[in-house]
Amino acid sequence: MHKGLLAILVLGSLILAGCGQSGPLYMPKDAPQQHQPQ
Question: Which residue spans traverse the membrane (predicted)?
Answer without folding.
Answer: none
